[in-house]
Amino acid sequence: MxxxxxxxxxxxxxxxxxxxxxxxxxxxxxxxxxAVSHLSGTATLLGVGMIKGSVLGLVHVLGVxxxxxVGSCIAGFxxxxxxxxxxxxxxxxxxxxxxxxxxxxxxLSEGSGYGHFLASAACGLQNALATTYSGAIVRTxxxxxxxxxxxxxxxxxxxGEPLDKRKAKLFLLIIAGFIIGGxxxxxxxxxxAFLALLVPSTICIxxxxxxxxxxxxxxx
Length: 220
Prior knowledge:
The structure is a single chain. The chain is globular. The model has no long low-confidence stretch (mean pLDDT 83). The protein has helices at 8-30, 40-52, 55-78, 90-109, 114-134, 144-158, 165-192, 198-219. 75% of the residues lie in helices and 0% in strands.
């Protein structure tokens, strides 16, 4: 599947991973140390909260989980095929993600915890976007599966099987993007607090505009 994707997918995956790492860093530093770009830890918090947490805490964690699902549903509604094709609503999904992040900025600046839900929805939307166009191979909002796939690939390589260099390159770019995004997110949050969210929202808008202009030129 990776070999069938156009070359610019690597650049897009790198930038989207950077956005996710950026947002997740802000989440870890500000949302009561709540990760929003992936749900493994959040699901664990829900389980722990059922034993020793408050009702309000449980509702909040459940809201983060459901919001991620809602974001994924939006992508599934907009993108009705697993094949990457110019003209599909990838730009619309990115515009929605940008507006969700701007909503996060506004809500959290006002002291509202509902911003956590919008942040989770934005990450769910982005992850589903990448999953849809890559045939469930690429994830850009977390790197657990990426490290697992790399480990499998390297293990088979050491056994004598050929290494899919393009796939390995793509996975390494996603990991690098996520880590760089985390560094940038932490720095910007320390300097500018929630205004740091203007950075990932602007990146999403620029990506959406670039995709729309490019697709129009190619299809004309």
